[in-house]
Prior knowledge:
- By secondary structure, the protein is mainly α.
- It has one domain (12-62): Orthogonal Bundle (Helix Hairpins), CATH 1.10.287.
- Helix content is 67%, strand content 0%.
- The chain has three helices and no strands.
- α1 runs antiparallel to α3.
- The longest helix is centred in the last third of the chain and has 20 residues, at 43-62.
- The N and C termini lie far apart (34 Å).
- Its cofactor is Mg(2+).
- This is TBB6 protein.
- It is found in: Cytoplasm, Cytoskeleton.
- Belongs to the tubulin family.
- One of its GO terms (biological process) is microtubule-based process.
Amino acid sequence: MAATFIGNNTAIQELFIRVSEQFSAMFRRKAFLHWYTGEGMDEMEFSEAEGNTNDLVSEYQQYQ
């Protein structure tokens, strides 16, 4: 029998921060961006997604 624990934990913010830093580094260099813009995405969508992630981290930090 297997059991799974699901909990609300603010430790996930560390993962979001790490992913956001990696994304920022790649986005600054415009790495792989041509693949997405070639399929119709706009660069602004990436900036918006980064902002959403940063907002999410800020919300988690309030509850720490």
